[in-house]
Amino acid sequence: MATKPGVADMAETCTSCGRDTPHSVAVHILTESAAEQNAEFSREPYRVSTCTVCGSTTKTRMNNA
Predict the structure, then answer these.
(1) With the CA atoms of 54, 55, 56 and 61 taken in that order, what torsion angle do they form, in degrees rounded to the nearest 10?
(2) What does the DSSP assignment read for 1-65?
(3) Closest C-alpha among 29, 26, 28, 64 to residue 43
(4) What is the sign of the dihedral through the CA atoms of 19, 23, 25 and 28?
(5) pLDDT at 33
């Protein structure tokens, strides 16, 4: 699923800026395993938030079960 840049902008606290700034937020499927043999089984959804002021990015795993 493709998203347009800037569509999901929202204000969040940026740990780098130290204030509430606009962030671009998206969901990405990331591979957690470095081993190629089982990489297809280690993909997990992450919420990726990027500060539009300083460019700092945070990734949060969405299924912390």
Answers:
(1) 150
(2) ----TTTTEEEEEETTTTEEEEEEEEEEEEE----STTGGG-EEEEEEEEETTT--EEEEES---
(3) 29
(4) negative
(5) 73
What's the predicted TM-score (pTM) here? 0.71
One digit per residue, pLDDT tens: the chain, 65 residues?
444 554 456 789 999 999 999 999 999 998 887 777 777 777 889 999 999 999 999 999 998 75
Residue type, 59: K
User: Quick check: 27 and 46 in contact, CB under 8 A?
Assistant: yes
Strands 43-51, 57-61: parallel, antiparallel or unpaired by DSSP? antiparallel
| Six token digits for residue 25 | 């937020």
